[in-house]
Each structure stands twice: as structure tokens, then as C-alpha cells.
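Risk register update: the risk of archive-format incompatibility is retired. Evidence:
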Amino acid sequence: MIDQRKEPVEVCPGVFQIPAQRPSCHVYLIVGTDKIVMIDSGIDASFGDLRDALSDIGFTPADVDLVVNTHEHFDHIGGNKYFYRTAIIAAGRLAAAKITEKDAYVTMYSSFSADYRYTKPHLWFENGAFIDLENAKLEVIDTPGHTSGCICVYEGYNKLLFSGDTVFAHGTLSAIAPSGSAGDYVHSMDVLNTKKIERLFPGHGSLSQTPSEDIERASKNARTRLHEMKTGDTWSESTPLDESGQ
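Archived output:
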């Protein structure tokens, strides 16, 4: 069941959060000088709320130029179809391959009834790709762990991180889904820990109020998780969120 729509919030100048309606994810809108980028598209059933939120901000779906999927799960790609004819759909290379091949097990479409058509990306990102919006410069960072296809988007001018399901507030890590890896998670957290991050915008849950500390804690949590998976102990250092962000 989808909760009542929440109003979009301008979390910093030119960046809007469209809060999640369960079981969807938060959607972020980055308004560039000439182009508009949307981070994730939510589930297809929540498109009406997404369209209304865009209208509240002053845009229509046709105004969005680029949709970036942070990974391949159904709750982040389901709305792609509504932007497919008017925007470029993009994802990291490994996520794009799974979406394109309709890998229903990995994308979790096998357990969620939805229309899979027109979700595949037009553009496959490699690590280190840049999107230049003049007033913002977005860097694509491969961050496998939750899935093999996870990416984060880093905006270097204002030191913003759009983390998808890679890391959440308080340094919480997501569950390791099919194609994910605890070892990859450790490396990904080490990579993010090299970035100066002043605002952290996750795909679920609350915004991080202490991003640097949260990334440091996430790095430690990833190592603890890897150790406990190796030894068969119960994971305890952080509580993974499920796909609804709970």
C-alpha cells in the first residue's frame, strides 16, 4: 500500500527531494543551468505522485533530461518507462546489463508484480563518468556491495552524495542482495571515505546530519559485516534496511 504523498523539499539550492512512498525510494531532482537530472524513478505505481511532485516544483516529466538509476532494483527503476521517450535513462554498466536482460531475480521483479517494459537504460555509465550541468558537476562512482551494479553520484562543487541504497544515515548499510558482496562493500566504503561529503542524500530513510561521521562508521560496519560473514557470526554492527527503507 502506498502512503499519502509527501511534499517535495528543496534540500539545498537547486536540489529537491521527492520523499518515498512505500515501497518506493526517494527521488532527487537536480536542476542544472540547462539540463535537469533525476536520481532514480521509484516504482511505476507511484508515478502519479512523482508527476504531482514535479508539478509542485514547477516542472513536468517531459522537462527531465536525464534519469540516473543508482542500481537495478525494482523500486529504483520502475518509473523509467514514464521518461523513456523524453529523457535519457542511465545506470552503471553492471546494473544496466541486468535491467536490459530483464534479470527478474536480481532486479526483484520476480517477487513484485509490475510492468517491466521500457525500463532499460539508454546510457551505460563507467566508473568516473562526469555529467556537467555548469552549476553542478556530477561524478559517477562505482560502489558495489548491496548489488554489483550500485553507483553513487557525487556533486563536487557542493560536496553532495546521492547514495541510493549503498549507505544510509547513521552509517547503516543495506542488505547484501543477490549479486552483492560484503568484500565489495568494504572497498566501496573506503572509496567514499576519500571524498569530502557535506550532505548525504540516501535512497531511503532520513537525511544524514553527520555525513563524514556516517561514512566513517559505514566503513567500519562493512569490515565488521565481512568478518562476521566469514566466521558465520550474526551481523550486529548495523541494521540493514529492507527495500522499503525500514
